[in-house]
Amino acid sequence: MRTIIPGVHTFTGLLAGRVYLIEDPDGLTLIDTSIAPSGRKILDQIRAMGRQPADVKRILITHAHPDHIGSLPELKAATGAQVIASSAERPVIEGQIPIPRVTPDKAVGIARLGLRPPSMTLKPTLVDREVNDGNTLPEVLGGLLVIATPGHAPGHIAFWQPEKRLIFLGDILMRFGNWIRLPISSLTCDMTENTRSLKKVSELNPAVVCFGHGAPLTENAAQIMRGLAQRSP
Question: Is the Cβ–Cβ distance between 210 and 20 less than 8 Å?
Answer without folding.
Answer: yes
